[in-house]
Design brief:
Mean pLDDT is about 85; it is low at about 1-15 and about 385-390. The strands form 2 sheets. Strands 9-8-10-11-7-12-13-14-15 form a 9-stranded mixed beta sheet, sandwiched between helices. Strands 3-2-1-6-5-4 form a 6-stranded antiparallel beta sheet, with helices on one face. It is globular and about 65 Å long. The chain folds into 2 domains: about 20-120, Beta-Lactamase, CATH 3.30.450; about 130-375, Rossmann fold (3-Layer(aba) Sandwich), CATH 3.40.50.300. The chain contains 12 helices and 15 strands. It has helices at about 20-25, 30-35, 70-80, 130-135, 140-150, 165-175, 220-225, 240-250, 265-280, 285-295, 360-365, 370-375, and strands at about 40-45, 50-55, 60, 95, 105, 115-120, 155-160, 185-190, 200-205, 230-235, 260, 300-305, 310-325, 325-340, 345-350.
Length: about 400
């Protein structure tokens, strides 16, 4: 299995036309230097006089401020209108994005009581690679190789974690392992994924108009994507009834799908997905939902944000099946902490548990060879020899 090839990315704001780049940045007003600072991961505007940023996992107040509430509202209006969204007193919350894919969340009065709120989850100028995540300590070489192998053999993978744990970043990295010849359909509320393959169809949901019409939900897009002949479906985040359609797609030939879920553990992830399926409005028995989950999903990759602010993969679990009413799972990798260093950073490693994942049998079933490192890490199970009927004893005359 060869390492994926990455294309160069030299655009400061991917997707922004060169001629209009300067005017776009100028329209961001006081936010421009923060947007251009690659060391920041989050920008949080709590009214015109309180602008916070996250840097190195820590939040701090900046000296940046807006001249007035009206200037802040103008910047917000510019950001959301640039991607075809709107926000006002009748529709006071909005999810949007900057032209580089950075996620934007806006809250206005009457829901925002202390002034306009603007939160920007920044994306780097070039997407992070798996080598970057290994260097950051998010995961190790062995775990990265295992996840890549699972993507190659078309495992259905859910990336689970709390807010700000790096789910979208890891989803981008996992998507980079998809072979370049496959047709990929991405589905998001606000387009953030930055896949490098050539054959990518990106779908983005749309909020309702002021009269309540025109809404296109993630569930609508998942159903629509099944008619687009996808090799892979990548859903930026499962939040509701679309989980049912996603599971049905996984169970009907669209394997190799990827998505993220807000949950604090792999077991919680299963419970969250179960609840989301019930949100589809179909009165399905709980056992039937769990059977769908157990047969559709192969892997849960759990992310967490540790006390030192670092984002780590803390568990990789394989979904095995059902035992009675319970979905059975087994840990393949778990995070083991070993204290802190002088700066307070948590020292720890993501270690294999020694259990051989069943999903690696797909290499043998497909006539492929598992990567050498994984073959050594997870030896092939010994199969019981076929029973042989002994020959009848010879009869002497």
């Amino acid at each position: 299995m060869t390492a994926p090839a990455y294309l160069p990315d030299t655009q400061p704001l991917a997707g922004a036309p060169d001629a209009g780049l300067e005017s776009y940045l100028r329209a961001l007003g006081p936010l421009r230097p923060l947007i251009e600072d690659d060391g920041l991961t989050e920008i949080m505007v709590n009214g015109p006089d309180a602008v916070y940023v996250e840097e190195g996992g820590r939040i701090r107040l900046t000296e940046v401020h807006f001249a007035s509430r009206e200037e802040l509202l103008r910047v917000i209006e510019f950001i959301v209108s640039a991607v075809g969204r709107r926000v006002d007193s009748r529709q006071p919350i909005c999810d949007a994005r900057l032209l580089d894919g950075s996620r934007v969340a806006v809250s206005l009065a009457p829901v925002a009581l202390n002034g306009p709120l603007l939160t920007i989850r920044k994306f780097g100028r070039a997407p992070f690679t798996v080598e970057d995540l290994i260097r950051f300590g998010t995961l190790g070489h062995e775990a990265a190789a295992f996840i890549e192998a699972c993507v190659v053999v078309r495992g259905n993978i859910v990336i689970s974690g709390g807010t700000g744990t790096g789910k979208t970043t890891l989803l981008n990295v996992c998507s980079s392992f998809i072979p370049h010849w496959e047709r990929i359909v991405t589905i998001e509320d606000a387009a953030e994924l930055r896949l490098r393959q050539a054959h990518v169809c990106s779908l983005e949901g749309r909020p309702a108009d002021n009269d309540g019409s025109g809404r296109i939900s993630i569930r609508d897009l998942v159903i629509h994507s099944l008619r687009m002949r996808p090799d892979r479906i990548v859903v930026g985040e499962c939040r509701g009834g679309e989980a049912l359609d996603m599971l049905q797609a996984m169970n009907t030939g669209h394997d190799g799908s990827l998505t993220t879920v807000h949950a604090n553990s792999p077991r919680d992830c299963m419970a969250r997905l179960e609840t989301m399926v019930l949100m589809a409005g179909l009165e399905l028995p709980v056992r039937a939902i769990r059977q769908q989950l157990a047969s559709a999903l192969d892997l849960v990759v759990q992310l967490a944000r540790l006390k030192d602010g670092s984002r780590r993969v803390v568990a990789i679990c394989e979904v095995l099946g059902m035992e009675g009413e319970t979905i059975t799972m087994q840990d393949i990798f778990t995070f083991a902490a070993a204290g802190t260093d002088e700066s307070g950073a948590i020292i720890g490693t993501l270690k294999p548990t020694g259990v051989r994942p069943h999903i690696l049998d797909r290499f043998e079933d497909s006539g492929l060879s598992a990567p050498a490192g994984l073959a050594a890490l997870f030896p092939v199970r010994r199969r019981a020899p076929l029973s042989v009927i002994p020959p009848a004893p010879s009869v002497s005359h």
